[in-house]
Amino acid sequence: MIELEFSKTLRDLNIQIFKNVNKRHKELGIDITPIQGTIIMAIYENNEALCQKNLEAFVSCNKSTLSSILDTMEKKELIQRSNDEFDTRKKIILLTKKSKDLIEKIAEDKIELEKKMCRGFTVKEKEMLLKYLNQMLENLERM
């Protein structure tokens, strides 16, 4: 059944991406998990400050799991939490110098991984694949 193949293949692809990112991070001496890298890049791409609630949109985990990940990142001095100046209930997540120093390596690693994943694809095929994956994402978000 094609639907089961799709789900299994996408799950397997996701697992392989995380395995490859972990392996590459170790090779490059980057002491972070893939999810920590995703969080660092999300904060960086949002002017190096993001509230915890908005960060939830970038990671697929619940509030308590995200909080635990952020606790670990704070202990590793990758992030710093600060109160929002307008709403003290909000926690702003800021990058530290340590995490800023990793941004270029994380970005280069992402580009390298995408090149390897798409080896043998034409530009048109990559465009179509991205179009189809985005359509699948939109379909699921509407559910």
Description:
- With 143 residues, the chain is mostly helical.
- It is built from seven helices and three strands.
- The chain is globular and about 50 Å long.
**SSE topology string:** HHEHHEEHHH
Fraction in beta strands: 5-15%
Structural class: mainly alpha
Number of helices: 7
Please give the alpha-carbon distance between the first and last residues: 22 Å
| Spatial extent as radius of gyration | 17 Å
Number of domains: 2
Poorly predicted regions: none
Helix content: 55-70%
Q: Biggest sheet, in brief? A: 3 strands, antiparallel
Strand order of the largest sheet: 1-3-2
Shape: globular
Mean pLDDT: 90
Number of separate strands: 3
Identify the notable features of this structure and list them briefly.
three-stranded antiparallel beta sheet, 2 domains, globular, single chain, mainly alpha, 143 residues, Arc Repressor Mutant, subunit A
In a few lines, what is going on in this structure?
This protein has 143 residues and is mainly alpha-helical. It is built from seven helices and three strands. 66% of the residues lie in helices and 9% in strands.
How are the secondary structure elements laid out?
Layout: H1 2-28, H2 34-45, E1 49-51, H3 52-55, H4 63-75, E2 79-83, E3 91-95, H5 97-100, H6 103-117, H7 123-141
Antiparallel strand pairs: 1-3, 2-3
Helix pairs in contact: 1-6
